[in-house]
Amino acid sequence: MLGEVFHRYFTSEGIMTQNILWPAKVRELHNHHFDSTIWNDLQFREDDIVIATYAKSGTTWMQQILAQMLFNGNPELSVAEMSPWLDLRIPPKQVKLPEVEAQTHRRMIKTHLPLDALVYSPKAKYIYIARDGRDVLWSMYNHHVHANQAWYEALNDTPDRIGPPIDRPPGDIRQYWHDWMDKDGHPFWPFWENIRTWWQIRELPNILFVHFNNLKSDMPGQMRRIASFMDIPIDESRWDDIVEYCSFDWMKKNAIKSVPLGGAFWDGGAEVFINKGVNGRWADTLSADESAAYEARAIRELGTECAHWLATGEITYNKEKSVS
Fold it and tell me: Are strands 125-130 and 20-21 parallel, antiparallel or unpaired?
């Protein structure tokens, strides 16, 4: 099955090891945020961790969880610096890549790319986090509407930008929602292909799928599941502190440590970046018909099984390591 999937979605030029056809990169992706070419020059290490999401799906939360487990509960960690967004084109790859190569701790590399636009390595372990698209959009709007002039200048006024600039959001979140749906992820990047391409490799041995809902309902249980998959030993004498430092309330109060540049790109600072951490805010705004249209679109784009997982976090895998 996997061989057929990769032939269909990633071509037949993947790397074959241990009877596994690994995904191959087939394109570059550039826009006001992305420069996917940096992945072409990354030298993978055997213990690398890659944190993959569409965006606003629990990325910063997962970075915090992994860092606190790796460093045995340290409230002073500067997680945003420790776990760089590799494909963000700011700073340019000539600056960023040497910084990543110079890291001596176990690397935690963040990406928002679809699978077929980055290099996938059998050496690394991957974790993919997803969230219902309606919740993603509501969080994205908060992120975008509070972005300040420095954010726009960094993304739009640099000479290496490819494609149109990112504009300020409309004042009406319903208009933002319809633009995002009608133009597939506008004004950021396509939503459905990100979910779909990663979903196709859910049974590879070096990737773990985590859902925002499950982190919300049982964070300690999900943390132990992640630690087991990533081969991170847990010091039980430090466990309560580790869990506390990963709680939403603690992260909100200490957001400057986990938000890029300490929140300098957002009016209101780092605490605005880490907003509410709740689901379902769209229910009071979207009509029943609008919500149903999204759900039908999810099934068309992703298939029934993936759409159900995206909405609920419920999934059935063929391998013990992947049980949600």
Answer: unpaired
User: CA of 38: how far to CAs of 140, 188, 276, 282, in Å?
Assistant: 25, 19, 32, 36
Domains of the chain by start residue, with CATH: 24-322 (3.40.50.300)
pLDDT for res 315: 79
pLDDT above 90: residue 68: yes
Q: H or E segment at 137?
A: helix 133-145
Bridge partners of residue 127, in order along the sequence: 51, 208
Confidence class of residue 120 from pLDDT cuts 50, 70 and 90? very high
Within its chain, how far is the Cα of 80 from the centroid?
13
pLDDT at res. 262: 57
* Neighbouring residues of 257: CB distance < 8 A, sequence distance ≥ 6: 75, 76, 77, 78, 79, 80
Q: What is the DSSP string of 43-102?
A: ---TT-EEEEESSSSSHHHHHHHHHHHHTTS-TT--HHHHS-BTTB-SS-HHHHHHHHHH
Q: Count how many Cα atoms sit within 13 Å of the Cα of residue 197 in the half-sphere of its side chain.
A: 24
H/E stretch holding 21: strand 20-21
